[in-house]
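Field log, afternoon session.

UNIT: design team B
ACTIVITY: writing a sequence onto a fixed backbone
BACKBONE:
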Protein backbone atom coordinates (compact mmCIF):
# COMPACT_ATOMS: atom_id res chain seq x y z
CA UNK A 1 0.00 0.00 0.00
CA UNK A 2 1.24 3.52 -0.85
CA UNK A 3 0.83 6.64 1.27
CA UNK A 4 1.43 10.34 0.66
CA UNK A 5 2.26 12.31 3.82
CA UNK A 6 1.96 16.10 3.64
CA UNK A 7 4.31 18.01 5.92
CA UNK A 8 2.51 21.12 7.19
CA UNK A 9 4.98 23.69 8.41
CA UNK A 10 5.82 27.37 8.80
CA UNK A 11 7.12 29.36 5.80
CA UNK A 12 10.75 28.85 6.97
CA UNK A 13 11.05 25.20 7.98
CA UNK A 14 14.00 23.25 9.30
CA UNK A 15 15.48 21.21 6.47
CA UNK A 16 16.98 17.74 6.76
CA UNK A 17 18.60 15.19 4.48
CA UNK A 18 19.22 11.50 5.07
CA UNK A 19 21.53 8.94 3.52
CA UNK A 20 22.69 5.47 4.49
CA UNK A 21 26.45 5.11 4.17
CA UNK A 22 28.29 1.90 5.11
CA UNK A 23 25.79 1.00 7.79
CA UNK A 24 25.61 4.55 9.14
CA UNK A 25 22.45 6.56 8.76
CA UNK A 26 23.62 10.09 8.00
CA UNK A 27 21.45 13.10 8.86
CA UNK A 28 22.22 16.67 7.81
CA UNK A 29 20.39 19.39 9.71
CA UNK A 30 20.23 23.09 8.93
CA UNK A 31 18.13 26.17 9.67
CA UNK A 32 17.27 28.90 7.21
CA UNK A 33 18.77 32.19 8.37
CA UNK A 34 20.32 35.27 6.86
CA UNK A 35 23.46 34.98 8.97
CA UNK A 36 26.30 32.52 8.70
CA UNK A 37 25.63 29.37 10.68
CA UNK A 38 27.17 25.97 11.10
CA UNK A 39 25.28 23.07 9.60
CA UNK A 40 25.84 19.80 11.40
CA UNK A 41 26.15 16.32 10.01
CA UNK A 42 25.28 13.63 12.51
CA UNK A 43 25.29 9.89 12.04
CA UNK A 44 23.94 6.88 13.76
CA UNK A 45 24.74 3.22 13.40
CA UNK A 46 21.63 1.28 12.44
CA UNK A 47 21.26 -2.26 13.77
CA UNK A 48 19.13 -4.54 11.66
CA UNK A 49 17.45 -7.43 13.43
CA UNK A 50 15.26 -9.72 11.34
CA UNK A 51 12.20 -11.17 13.09
CA UNK A 52 13.41 -9.68 16.40
CA UNK A 53 16.15 -12.29 16.69
CA UNK A 54 18.99 -9.86 17.37
CA UNK A 55 19.31 -6.73 19.53
CA UNK A 56 22.34 -4.62 20.27
CA UNK A 57 22.98 -1.61 22.44
CA UNK A 58 25.12 1.33 21.43
CA UNK A 59 26.54 3.63 24.10
CA UNK A 60 27.72 7.24 23.96
CA UNK A 61 24.30 8.43 22.86
CA UNK A 62 23.15 12.02 22.80
CA UNK A 63 19.69 12.17 21.24
CA UNK A 64 16.96 9.60 21.60
CA UNK A 65 15.15 8.35 18.54
CA UNK A 66 12.12 6.06 18.31
CA UNK A 67 12.23 2.48 17.08
CA UNK A 68 10.84 1.83 13.60
CA UNK A 69 8.96 -1.35 12.73
CA UNK A 70 8.31 -2.50 9.18
CA UNK A 71 7.07 -5.82 7.80
CA UNK A 72 8.93 -8.65 9.57
CA UNK A 73 12.10 -6.63 10.08
CA UNK A 74 12.92 -4.78 13.26
CA UNK A 75 15.20 -1.77 12.99
CA UNK A 76 16.64 -0.58 16.27
CA UNK A 77 18.24 2.82 15.83
CA UNK A 78 20.77 4.29 18.19
CA UNK A 79 21.03 8.03 18.69
CA UNK A 80 23.20 10.72 17.23
CA UNK A 81 26.61 12.19 17.70
CA UNK A 82 28.24 15.03 15.76
CA UNK A 83 30.50 13.87 12.94
CA UNK A 84 31.31 16.98 10.92
CA UNK A 85 30.42 20.66 10.83
CA UNK A 86 30.26 22.92 7.78
CA UNK A 87 30.12 26.72 7.55
CA UNK A 88 26.89 27.63 5.73
CA UNK A 89 24.83 30.74 5.00
CA UNK A 90 21.11 30.06 5.11
CA UNK A 91 21.66 26.43 4.07
CA UNK A 92 18.43 25.12 2.61
CA UNK A 93 19.27 21.75 1.11
CA UNK A 94 21.94 19.04 1.14
CA UNK A 95 22.34 16.41 -1.54
CA UNK A 96 24.39 13.23 -1.22
CA UNK A 97 25.43 11.51 -4.45
CA UNK A 98 28.08 9.22 -5.89
CA UNK A 99 29.97 9.29 -9.16
CA UNK A 100 31.79 6.02 -9.63
CA UNK A 101 33.52 5.27 -6.34
CA UNK A 102 33.57 8.91 -5.24
CA UNK A 103 31.08 10.35 -2.74
CA UNK A 104 29.95 13.98 -2.79
CA UNK A 105 27.87 16.30 -0.64
CA UNK A 106 26.38 19.48 -2.13
CA UNK A 107 24.93 22.31 -0.02
CA UNK A 108 22.57 25.01 -1.28
CA UNK A 109 23.32 28.29 0.53
CA UNK A 110 20.26 30.45 0.02
CA UNK A 111 21.71 33.64 1.52
CA UNK A 112 25.18 33.46 0.04
CA UNK A 113 26.61 34.06 -3.40
CA UNK A 114 28.42 30.72 -3.18
CA UNK A 115 27.18 27.17 -2.82
CA UNK A 116 29.62 24.33 -2.29
CA UNK A 117 30.20 20.74 -3.31
CA UNK A 118 32.24 18.62 -0.92
CA UNK A 119 34.05 15.39 -1.74
CA UNK A 120 34.84 12.53 0.61
CA UNK A 121 38.62 12.05 0.98
CA UNK A 122 38.46 8.86 3.01
CA UNK A 123 38.37 10.64 6.35
CA UNK A 124 36.10 13.65 5.95
CA UNK A 125 34.40 15.86 3.38
CA UNK A 126 36.61 18.57 1.88
CA UNK A 127 35.65 21.42 -0.45
CA UNK A 128 35.62 20.13 -4.02
CA UNK A 129 34.02 23.02 -5.89
CA UNK A 130 32.40 26.40 -5.23
CA UNK A 131 29.61 27.57 -7.50
CA UNK A 132 28.70 31.28 -7.78
CA UNK A 133 24.96 31.10 -7.11
CA UNK A 134 22.64 33.41 -5.18
CA UNK A 135 19.35 32.12 -3.80
CA UNK A 136 20.14 28.41 -4.06
CA UNK A 137 17.25 26.36 -2.69
CA UNK A 138 17.31 22.74 -3.84
CA UNK A 139 19.72 20.32 -5.54
CA UNK A 140 18.76 17.33 -7.68
CA UNK A 141 21.41 14.87 -8.82
CA UNK A 142 20.69 12.48 -11.68
CA UNK A 143 22.44 10.26 -14.18
CA UNK A 144 21.34 10.56 -17.78
CA UNK A 145 22.91 8.59 -20.61
CA UNK A 146 25.88 7.73 -18.32
CA UNK A 147 26.53 11.44 -17.64
CA UNK A 148 26.12 13.01 -14.19
CA UNK A 149 24.12 16.22 -13.76
CA UNK A 150 23.24 18.55 -10.88
CA UNK A 151 20.11 20.67 -11.24
CA UNK A 152 19.64 23.63 -8.91
CA UNK A 153 16.40 25.45 -8.11
CA UNK A 154 17.12 29.17 -7.70
CA UNK A 155 14.72 31.30 -5.63
CA UNK A 156 16.28 34.68 -6.53
CA UNK A 157 16.26 34.46 -10.28
CA UNK A 158 14.14 33.93 -13.36
CA UNK A 159 16.44 31.04 -14.20
CA UNK A 160 17.55 27.86 -12.51
CA UNK A 161 20.76 26.07 -13.38
CA UNK A 162 21.79 22.69 -14.74
CA UNK A 163 25.38 21.57 -14.25
CA UNK A 164 27.14 18.77 -16.09
CA UNK A 165 30.06 16.75 -14.72
CA UNK A 166 32.93 16.74 -17.22
CA UNK A 167 35.06 14.21 -15.37
CA UNK A 168 36.88 16.86 -13.37
CA UNK A 169 34.26 19.35 -12.17
CA UNK A 170 30.70 20.52 -12.68
CA UNK A 171 30.28 23.07 -15.47
CA UNK A 172 27.21 25.15 -16.26
CA UNK A 173 25.30 23.30 -18.98
CA UNK A 174 21.95 25.09 -19.24
CA UNK A 175 20.04 28.02 -17.74
CA UNK A 176 16.41 26.96 -17.39
CA UNK A 177 13.56 29.50 -17.01
CA UNK A 178 11.84 29.40 -13.60
CA UNK A 179 10.35 31.96 -11.20
CA UNK A 180 11.45 31.92 -7.59
CA UNK A 181 11.92 28.17 -7.94
CA UNK A 182 11.67 26.29 -4.64
CA UNK A 183 12.25 22.72 -5.76
CA UNK A 184 13.47 20.61 -8.65
CA UNK A 185 12.81 16.92 -9.32
CA UNK A 186 13.81 14.50 -12.06
CA UNK A 187 12.29 11.36 -13.53
CA UNK A 188 12.56 8.97 -16.45
CA UNK A 189 9.44 7.59 -18.17
CA UNK A 190 9.67 5.23 -21.15
CA UNK A 191 13.27 6.26 -21.87
CA UNK A 192 12.28 9.94 -21.84
CA UNK A 193 13.77 12.33 -19.29
CA UNK A 194 11.88 15.03 -17.39
CA UNK A 195 12.91 17.81 -15.04
CA UNK A 196 10.32 19.78 -13.03
CA UNK A 197 10.67 23.12 -11.25
CA UNK A 198 8.21 24.34 -8.59
CA UNK A 199 7.76 28.10 -9.06
CA UNK A 200 7.01 29.72 -5.71
CA UNK A 201 6.96 33.53 -6.16
CA UNK A 202 7.97 35.85 -9.00
CA UNK A 203 8.16 39.07 -6.98
CA UNK A 204 4.52 40.02 -7.39
CA UNK A 205 2.42 36.87 -7.35
CA UNK A 206 2.31 33.32 -5.96
CA UNK A 207 -0.18 32.20 -8.61
CA UNK A 208 2.23 30.91 -11.23
CA UNK A 209 2.67 28.11 -13.68
CA UNK A 210 5.16 25.50 -12.51
CA UNK A 211 7.15 23.86 -15.25
CA UNK A 212 7.97 20.36 -16.45
CA UNK A 213 10.80 20.17 -18.97
CA UNK A 214 11.62 17.29 -21.33
CA UNK A 215 15.01 16.30 -22.72
CA UNK A 216 15.11 16.67 -26.51
CA UNK A 217 18.47 15.00 -27.00
CA UNK A 218 20.48 18.18 -26.55
CA UNK A 219 18.80 20.31 -23.83
CA UNK A 220 15.70 20.39 -21.63
CA UNK A 221 12.76 22.13 -23.31
CA UNK A 222 9.45 23.24 -21.79
CA UNK A 223 7.01 20.34 -21.98
CA UNK A 224 4.07 21.15 -19.69
CA UNK A 225 2.86 24.01 -17.48
CA UNK A 226 0.89 23.22 -14.32
CA UNK A 227 -1.07 25.91 -12.39
CA UNK A 228 0.31 26.37 -8.87
CA UNK A 229 -0.07 28.56 -5.79
CA UNK A 230 3.19 29.21 -4.00
CA UNK A 231 4.52 25.86 -5.19
CA UNK A 232 7.06 24.30 -2.82
CA UNK A 233 7.75 20.87 -4.24
CA UNK A 234 7.50 18.23 -6.93
CA UNK A 235 7.77 14.50 -6.31
CA UNK A 236 7.74 11.94 -9.12
CA UNK A 237 6.82 8.40 -8.13
CA UNK A 238 5.57 5.14 -9.59
CA UNK A 239 2.96 2.56 -8.52
CA UNK A 240 3.14 -0.55 -10.66
CA UNK A 241 3.29 0.62 -14.26
CA UNK A 242 1.65 3.96 -13.49
CA UNK A 243 3.64 7.17 -13.15
CA UNK A 244 2.58 10.07 -10.93
CA UNK A 245 3.87 13.41 -9.77
CA UNK A 246 2.80 15.50 -6.78
CA UNK A 247 2.81 19.29 -6.76
CA UNK A 248 2.77 20.85 -3.30
CA UNK A 249 1.09 24.25 -2.97
CA UNK A 250 1.93 26.34 0.11
CA UNK A 251 0.08 29.65 -0.19
CA UNK A 252 -3.45 30.50 -1.34
CA UNK A 253 -2.98 34.06 -2.58
CA UNK A 254 -6.64 34.71 -3.44
CA UNK A 255 -7.64 34.01 0.19
CA UNK A 256 -4.38 35.17 1.82
CA UNK A 257 -4.19 31.79 3.52
CA UNK A 258 -1.89 28.79 3.82
CA UNK A 259 -4.91 26.51 3.36
CA UNK A 260 -4.37 25.05 -0.09
CA UNK A 261 -5.10 22.16 -2.36
CA UNK A 262 -1.96 20.25 -3.26
CA UNK A 263 -2.33 17.93 -6.22
CA UNK A 264 -1.35 14.57 -7.67
CA UNK A 265 -1.04 14.22 -11.44
CA UNK A 266 -1.02 10.94 -13.39
CA UNK A 267 0.85 10.24 -16.60
CA UNK A 268 -1.52 9.24 -19.42
CA UNK A 269 1.16 8.38 -21.95
CA UNK A 270 1.22 11.88 -23.40
CA UNK A 271 1.11 14.31 -20.46
CA UNK A 272 0.32 14.60 -16.75
CA UNK A 273 -3.39 14.95 -15.91
CA UNK A 274 -4.97 15.87 -12.58
CA UNK A 275 -5.62 12.72 -10.54
CA UNK A 276 -6.36 13.87 -6.96
CA UNK A 277 -6.45 16.97 -4.76
CA UNK A 278 -5.27 16.89 -1.14
CA UNK A 279 -6.01 19.68 1.40
CA UNK A 280 -2.76 20.96 2.95
CA UNK A 281 -1.72 23.84 5.21
CA UNK A 282 1.49 25.60 4.21
CA UNK A 283 2.82 22.24 3.06
CA UNK A 284 6.46 22.06 2.11
CA UNK A 285 6.53 18.70 0.36
CA UNK A 286 4.31 15.75 -0.53
CA UNK A 287 6.28 12.50 -0.51
CA UNK A 288 5.31 8.98 -1.50
CA UNK A 289 6.41 5.86 0.32
CA UNK A 290 5.67 2.16 0.17
CA UNK A 291 4.49 0.10 3.07
Amino acid sequence: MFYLPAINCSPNPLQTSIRSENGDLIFVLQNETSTTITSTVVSMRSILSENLNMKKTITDLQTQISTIYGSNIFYSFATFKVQWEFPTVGAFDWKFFQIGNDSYLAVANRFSSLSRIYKWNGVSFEVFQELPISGAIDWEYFLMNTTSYLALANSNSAFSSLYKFNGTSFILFQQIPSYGAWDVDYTRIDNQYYLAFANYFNGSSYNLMSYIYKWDGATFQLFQQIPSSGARGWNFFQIGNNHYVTLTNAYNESQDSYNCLSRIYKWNGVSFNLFQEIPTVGANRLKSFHR
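LOG NOTE: The two ends are 5 Å apart (CA to CA).
NEXT ACTIVITY: expression trials, pending approval
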